[in-house]
Fold this protein.
Amino acid sequence: MSATLSPARPRRGRPYGSWLRGIAITAVTLVFALPLVWMFAAAFKTNVQVTDPSVGLWFTPTLDNFRAVVEAGQIVRSMGNSLLVGVVSTVLSAVIAVRGAWAVGRFSLHRTGSVILVARIVPAISLLVPWYYLFARMGLVGSYTVLILSHMFVSVPLIMWIMISFFAGLPVELEEAARTDGLSAFGAFWRISLPLAAPGTATASLLAFVFSWNNFMFALVFSDDRTQTVPVTLFNFISYASTDWGGLMAAASLITVPVVLAAVLGQKYLVAGLTSGASKG
């Protein structure tokens, strides 16, 4: 007598891995998002409500903080200064660093790459005293020029270090074919390699702009009332006797918006650049 074996049913286990991954992602998101939520909420509170622990997210919002910050005029001028310094320093850094990264990545200039790494890890604060002495003798302290140059000291190695892996990962046969068709070395770089490395260029430039927008140390030392950027303006809301928490949070919310918009609008290039660099590096 033969027994008929029924087909085994697939085991349906609970996707514990997916649940744990989702919980971990949610926890990390909350850790990073809660300070921003608190900042935006505090921008619509009075100073008394900000310092009152019993006042949570349920309160009557007010626009007095934003009105006072905008009417003062300093935050608007500082945002214009930050935009000018950030855009100019990022563009000039990208023009210099992208071509340098192509040369290092294409011709395997390992010593040059090591020098770039050293420039990346040197603390910028150690250079403030000689920089200030040099720029003061040249009469540049308080000008946009000194802010742009100081930001480029960090932006050029940053962009160059990110872009080296992109150009090193591009097939050299593409440039060789372009050279065979009559293009010069720079022509092959301009027409072939640079368009292929556009996601990496956008990623590195966005990171350099965010650094310039958020930089406080250089602006505090080298700027004056006419050229000060937004981090220094935020610092002015803090005094020895008291802190204008409502105005500080309102100003911080205003200066956060441009960076968030830049990240959202460039999200496609940012994600593509980071993943491409990770796979090629």
